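Structure in, sequence out. Go:
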């Protein structure tokens, strides 16, 4: 089976009702991204940050995977599919995808502020005073701006073995995620689904499908089937 590596961003969850980061004047659900997604924001106002992610976590229980998430699961019938997602939602998992690597953490996990390896599953609100077993405050298991991205090496290895790279709904502005494309072996096809072409240089062999994820995915599946016929 050919190996498709998929890089997803906020755009794939937009049609499920989760807002993207950069489509609304740089505001994310009404907040400056740095206020709620940086160690500085956490140091300045941890309660605001906890409240923000509590709202995001609650919202997760109100939304469902959409057609694009389900199409990625369907691709597993014909391809080995590895998903690298920048999203912190669990919509790929709920659609049934078997291999999902979260680059920027997960909303349904929390971790010790002092030990990044003390990670717990978490479905409820997280409050100030909720402690890990090392007695440190628990924080959202989210990779904030300025923090290392522990999963990046694994993501690079996946892209290095890809026969096809598929990019869906990311503005490709956040590194190191945006740099993953540089690890794709020379000449391998790239498909990109986004209603707006991302900034930056794309390989010449990029096939751009200018559409939303739910419009573009069925189209892509048809294209890939034609190629393998
Ligand atoms: P962005 O908000 O930067 O980009 C969203 C992309 O989705 C844009 O290119 C939109 O054109 C596209 N888009 C919008 N609606 C769409 C739809 N219905 N279907 C397909 N595409 C659509 O989000 P990301 O690139 O994911 O990091 O942002 C990367 C990282 O920046 C996030 O993981 C997050 C953020 O700060 C952290 O929280 C650490």
């Amino acid at each position: 089976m050919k190996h498709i590596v998929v890089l997803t961003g906020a755009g794939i969850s937009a049609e499920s009702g989760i807002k993207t980061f950069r489509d609304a004047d740089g505001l994310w659900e009404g907040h400056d991204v740095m206020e709620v997604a940086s160690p500085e924001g956490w140091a300045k106002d941890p309660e605001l940050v906890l409240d923000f992610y509590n709202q995001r976590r609650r919202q997760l229980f109100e939304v469902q995977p959409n057609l694009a998430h389900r199409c990625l699961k369907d691709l597993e019938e014909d391809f080995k599919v590895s998903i690298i997602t920048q999203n912190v939602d669990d919509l790929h998992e709920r659609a049934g995808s078997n291999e999902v690597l979260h680059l920027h953490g997960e909303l349904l996990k929390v971790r010790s502020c002092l030990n990044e390896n003390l990670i717990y599953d978490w479905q409820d609100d997280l409050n100030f005073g909720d402690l890990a077993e090392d007695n440190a405050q628990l924080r959202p298991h989210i990779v904030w701006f300025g923090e290392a991205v522990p999963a990046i090496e694994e993501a690079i290895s996946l892209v290095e073995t890809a026969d096809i790279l598929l990019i869906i709904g990311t503005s490709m502005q956040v590194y190191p995620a945006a740099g993953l494309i540089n690890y794709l072996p020379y000449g391998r096809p790239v498909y990109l689904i986004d209603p707006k072409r991302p900034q930056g240089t794309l390989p010449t062999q990029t096939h751009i499908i200018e559409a939303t994820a739910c419009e573009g995915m069925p189209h892509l599946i048809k294209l890939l089937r034609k190629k393998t016929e």
